Each structure stands twice: as structure tokens, then as C-alpha cells.
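Let us work through a complete example step by step.
Step 1: write down the sequence.
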Amino acid sequence: MTAFDVPLPAGYRSADFLAYHGRDALSVSERVTGMVLEKPLWLSGGLALLSLEIGDAVAMARFDRALGDAESIEAHDIVARLLGFSSDPAGFEAMPAAAAIAAARPGLRIPLTATVFEAVCWAVIGQQINLTFAAALRREMIALAGTPNPGSGLLAHPGPAAVASLDPADLAARRFSRSKARYLVETSAAIAAGTPSLEGLAAAGPETAEAALTALRGIGPWTARYILLRGFGFPDVAPVGDSGLATGLERLHGLDRRPDISEQEAAMRAFAPHRSLATVHLWASLKDQPGAKSRKPTTLANRPDAIVAKSVPPATAGPEAGPSVQLKRSRSP
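Step 2: predict the structure and record it as C-alpha cells.
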């Protein structure tokens, strides 16, 4: 067995880590019990079960077998992703624009998926449905393509080739829409073929990555930006079009309705180069006062240009939601 400890930053928000990775209580590919996350992982030498326990000052990583040198490096990288170590809360909280949303959650980080491909699957599956249904569909996909880890009773999340090998009809028989099943399988096949290469996109940067992802059928801006945020861990991403993000901005600025996509884009520029953390803070703020706004409502027209655009269409205007627009139900993915 291989084990190692990882020092946690001062004030590390353990509850956020556990809540994110345990958001699907019925998950077949990870399990949170108390302060421990269990998750089977594919490493270069094969399958290994990670048990990650959060302590007061350290996270204790334990694997069910001995890892080789290369695997140990991979394991450290995955643990750092899961813990959200790529986030820069101090940099974000030092911004004047962040004061209104950061004070309630100092030290907030963005836990990432174990691999970028897991975020791809979450994003494609989660298009235009709520989190509960998305989690149920994800379980169905993993049950079809995942690999059992006998010691834990869990399944390892499948890689791109395994998902690409699925018959979309089998997914459709498990409550996937025909288009969602096709998009998931086609996207996985493209990634398995290296077109695009997720490793290459990570090195290329967010603009190149977004362009490459949205070139794939069924992936629009929201899906791509969710992958950039939760999969790649890019720090300056705002998934505009997200219903939860729109509601968070509405409450933050005391607006009389949710801002549209162009207004969300304008409002989020105030948080550059930390728009990813701003997004997660705004998602988290929805739990503070459900159904309440942060202050007395004002009209969008009375807000300064730096917050929202002055030209505002009717609230019902705009194209129908589809893969290219991807308006989302309010949730915190």
C-alpha cells in the first residue's frame, strides 16, 4: 500500500470539499463517509482505490496497493486537483470587487474533478437538466462503462475510449435523450482519438480550449466553460448563461430581474482574472437567503455600465435554449 500526507492551507474549508465530492449521495464511483472520500482511480499502472481523509491540518491519502514512481506523481496531482489546490483565494479576496461576495466564505476554493474527462461527462450529461437528474444519468453511464473495484463496491469512472464504445441506444434506454446520448459518445470518441487532446488544451490555455471544445457537436459555451472551470481548473472562466450565476448576479447587484447573457458577461469582467472563483462564490451565495435579494431592487437601466449593459431586451426575449445557448436551471454543479 502507498500512503502520503498533504498539508492543508490554513483555514482550509473541509466541508466544501466533502460537499462537492459527495453531492451525489447515490454515486457509484465515489463515496463520502464522514471526513473520508473514497474513489477508484485509473493510474498508469492500473486501477487503485484512493481513500482521502481530511484532518485538521493534513489530508491523508491512502491507496489499496503499492504505487510505482510515475503513479505516485499522478496520485499527488489528482489529490491536489480534488482538494482544489490550484485556486488562489487570497488573490481573489484582495480584489475590491470581491469584497461583497468573499466575506461570507473566506478561503473558498474550487475542487476539481479527478480528471478533465470526468468534467466533460458531467457537463455534457448536465445540459439543460437539474443536478439530481444529471447525477442519475451519470450513474447509468458509469454502470455501463465503468470498471468494478471489488474491495470498495465502487466503479472506476470510465475513460474516453470506454464511453466512446457505448451504443447511444443503450444510454437512451436509461433515460438519456437521443441527442444527449449521441453527443456524449461522439465527444468521447473525439477525445479518445486526440481531437482534441485534453492534455494539449490544458497547456494551450482557456481561449484555445474553449474554441476546440465548442467545435464539437453538442458543446456550446456553457458546457465548454464548465469544463474549463471544473476540469481544467482555469482561474478566469465565467459560464455565462448559467441560471445560478444569473441569479447570483441579480441578488448581488439588487436587480429587478436576472441579467441576460451579455449582461452576465459584462458584470463578470469586474472579477477578472479570478472569474472562476467569483462564479463559485456566486453559486454558493444562493444558499444564503433563498428567494431573497441582497438589497432593495433597482432597475437594470439605473445600474452603471460596468455592471450591466444599458440596452436590455424584454425578459422573455432571446433564442430558445439549445446546445449553443444552454440556459441552465439553477444549481451548483
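Step 3: interpret the result. The longest helix spans residues 69-83.
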